[in-house]
């Protein structure tokens, strides 16, 4: 089998994962997209290891060993990431990444008394309010 087939498949997997990270709003789907990108890296590691071991008669298989380390790191990442997402969901009531960013900045999009930057608008003076209603 040619090296191009797993390389193209890994590129497609990585691009799909990258699109998922950039386009998704749900934190769980973002974590799943990161897993797709890590699996693309694993596929490249194993494919290049098989290709280099045939060319050089290498019996060390360092690409497969690195793939095992990547799998272990991915498992730890998904465990910690899921714990963080669940804790944020309990505290904030949502796992929408955009809404979490807005609440971290102190901006409530439904608050009419705040401007676009999230700062509270100054209260009008007593004379200004009387003039506005007159």
UniProtKB/TrEMBL annotation:
UniProt keyword terms in alphabetical order: Cell membrane, Membrane, NAD, Quinone, Translocase, Transmembrane, Transmembrane helix, Transport
Predominant cellular place of this UniProt entry's protein: membrane
Domain of life: Bacteria
TM spans (from-to): 66-89
Subcellular location as annotated: Cell membrane; Membrane
EC number: 7.1.1.-
Compositional bias per record (Basic and acidic residues), positions renumbered to this chain: 98-109
Catalysed reactions, semicolon-separated: a quinone + NADH + 5 H(+)(in) = a quinol + NAD(+) + 4 H(+)(out)
Broad EC category: translocase
Membrane topology: Multi-pass membrane protein
A Pfam family the protein falls into: Oxidored_q2
Region (Disordered), start-end ranges: 98-134
Subunit and interaction comment: NDH-1 is composed of 14 different subunits. Subunits NuoA, H, J, K, L, M, N constitute the membrane sector of the complex.
Function: NDH-1 shuttles electrons from NADH, via FMN and iron-sulfur (Fe-S) centers, to quinones in the respiratory chain. The immediate electron acceptor for the enzyme in this species is believed to be a menaquinone. Couples the redox reaction to proton translocation (for every two electrons transferred, four hydrogen ions are translocated across the cytoplasmic membrane), and thus conserves the redox energy in a proton gradient.
Family: Belongs to the complex I subunit 4L family.
Protein name per UniProt: NADH-quinone oxidoreductase subunit K
């Amino acid at each position: 089998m040619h090296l191009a087939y797993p390389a193209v498949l890994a590129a497609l997997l990585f691009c799909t994962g990258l699109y998922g990270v950039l386009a998704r709003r749900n934190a769980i789907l973002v974590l799943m997209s990161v897993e797709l990108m890590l699996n693309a890296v694993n596929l490249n590691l194993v494919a290049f290891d098989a290709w280099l071991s045939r060319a050089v008669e290498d019996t060390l298989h360092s690409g497969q060993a690195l793939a095992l380390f990547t799998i272990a790191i991915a498992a730890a990442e998904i465990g910690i990431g899921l714990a963080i997402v669940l804790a944020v969901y309990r505290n904030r009531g949502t796992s929408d990444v955009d809404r979490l960013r807005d609440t971290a900045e102190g901006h409530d999009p439904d608050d009419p008394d705040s401007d676009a930057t999230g700062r509270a608008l100054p209260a009008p003076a007593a004379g200004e309010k009387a003039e506005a209603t007159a």
